[in-house]
């Protein structure tokens, strides 16, 4: 099941909402519809707890929650705009529980470009915050400081400034952590810079988690968890990209490929899988690739029906393929995104091999062993 859905496109980039977004909108509306307190910057009252009647209060609260996530989307578009101007393709932007994530085809290795991209998001948030505060001053002059519309502008301005400040904290993989990595990358190899920034991000997350634990702040604990996991995953992903750099699919694929026909019974296929110790096979018919069949496809059919069911009835016809001259890292990304374990390698409409997750893992392990030997 897909956990996010597309709501439109901005600058040609698909904008997606994660299902957690549906939960956070009413939660934010509930919080800001229940509070009324001075903001930490100007001493003015933010939140809609004092707005009457209740219908107006909750209408403004929900409007604020939606506008806040519009601002989060604009924050991510700031990153994406700088990336696209510099030739980096953006697959999509997804809004999550704690903000947005721009899915890029590649992370820039040039420190100056990463500095620009990392700062673009907080820069947009800062501009939005200042703009809202300026509009608030005009609204307060005409409608009064206590008018709900003035409160909306003030609250939105304060939250954008907080969003800017929070994202600039040096906690990788947040924007401040990426700025830190870009700084480190001017002085050391990229993978080392990533490890150092990720380590600092994890330390920051641990500190945040301890603070949340002792203050009984569940939100702080949750943010700490996501920062720690994000830093770990980014460190791992960078190490994988570096280890597969310069390696082409042709270098690691299996050129001798066992295939099956669409008329083979699932019973015979299971016997082949047990004998050959493979979990999936390309399905060929008259020399043409028809699909992929895996053990998962077989397991969906009751054992009593496997003698009567053919491979062609259960195979996946939606094919994801790759070329032999493409980077091995591109194969890894495709497997991770599509949730698959193997890719047919096609050249001029002919299957010339197959690359599996195991082939990629083996290449990564060999790179790690070489790095260890060089350090020793």
Radius of gyration: 26 Å
Query: If you average the pLDDT, what whole number results?
Result: 83
Helical coverage, percent range: 55-70%
Widest beta sheet: strand line-up: 1-2-5-6
- Major sheet: 4 strands, mixed
The overall strand count is 10
Class inferred from helices and paired strands? alpha+beta
Total of DSSP H or I helical runs spanning 4+ residues: 13
* SSE pattern, N- to C-terminal: EEHEEHEEHHHHHHHEEHHHEEH
Unreliable spans are: none
How does the overall form come out from the CA principal axes?
elongated
Strand residue content:
5-15%
- Our count of domains comes out at 3
The rounded distance between the terminal residues' Cα atoms is: 46 Å
Describe this structure in words.
The chain has 376 residues and is of the alpha+beta class. It folds into three domains: 1-168, no CATH class; 172-243; 249-372, Roll (CBS-domain). Helices cover 57% and strands 15% of the residues. The chain is built from 13 helices and ten strands. The protein has helices at residues 19-32, 54-85, 111-143, 148-167, 175-185, 190-214, 218-243, 249-252, 266-276, 295-299, 311-314, 328-338, 357-375; strands at 4-10, 13-18, 37-38, 45-46, 90-96, 99-104, 280-285, 288-294, 342-347, 350-356. The strands form four sheets. A four-stranded mixed β-sheet has the order 1-2-5-6. Helix 2 (54-85) packs antiparallel against helix 3. The mean pLDDT is 83.
């Amino acid at each position: 099941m897909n956990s996010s859905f597309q709501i439109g496109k901005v600058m040609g980039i698909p904008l997606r909402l994660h299902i957690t977004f549906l939960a956070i909108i009413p939660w934010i509306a509930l919080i800001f519809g229940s509070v009324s307190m001075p903001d930490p910057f100007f001493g003015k009252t933010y939140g809609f707890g004092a707005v009457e009647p209740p219908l107006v209060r909750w209408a403004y609260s929900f409007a604020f929650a939606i506008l806040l996530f519009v601002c989060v989307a604009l924050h991510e578009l700031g990153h994406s705009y700088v990336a696209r101007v510099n030739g980096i393709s953006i697959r999509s932007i997804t809004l999550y529980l704690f903000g947005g994530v721009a899915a890029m085809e590649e992370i820039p290795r040039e420190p100056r470009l990463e500095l620009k991209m990392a700062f673009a998001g907080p820069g947009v948030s800062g501009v939005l915050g200042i703009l809202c505060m300026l509009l608030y001053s005009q609204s307060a002059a005409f409608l009064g400081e206590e008018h709900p519309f003035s409160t909306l502008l003030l609250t939105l301005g304060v939250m954008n400034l907080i969003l800017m400040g929070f994202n600039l904290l040096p906690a990788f993989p947040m924007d401040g952590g990426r700025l830190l990595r870009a700084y480190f990358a001017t002085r050391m190899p990229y993978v080392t810079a990533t490890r150092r920034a990720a380590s600092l991000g994890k330390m920051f997350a641990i500190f945040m988690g301890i603070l949340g634990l002792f203050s009984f702040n569940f939100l702080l604990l949750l943010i700490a968890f996501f920062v720690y996991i994000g830093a770990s995953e980014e460190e791992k992903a960078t190490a994988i990209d570096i280890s597969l750099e310069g390696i082409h699919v042709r270098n690691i694929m299996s050129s001798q490929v066992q295939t099956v026909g669409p008329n083979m019974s699932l019973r015979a296929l299971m016997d082949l899988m047990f004998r050959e110790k493979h979990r999936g096979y390309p399905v060929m018919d008259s020399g043409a690739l028809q699909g992929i069949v895996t053990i998962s496809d077989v397991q969906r059919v009751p054992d009593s029906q496997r003698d009567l069911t053919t491979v062609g009835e259960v195979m996946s016809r939606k094919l994801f393929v790759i070329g032999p001259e493409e980077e091995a890292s591109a194969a890894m990304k495709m497997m991770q995104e599509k949730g698959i374990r193997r890719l047919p390698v096609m050249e001029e409409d002919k299957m010339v091999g197959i690359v599996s997750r195991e082939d990629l893992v083996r290449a990564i392990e060999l790179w790690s062993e070489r790095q260890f030997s060089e350090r020793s």
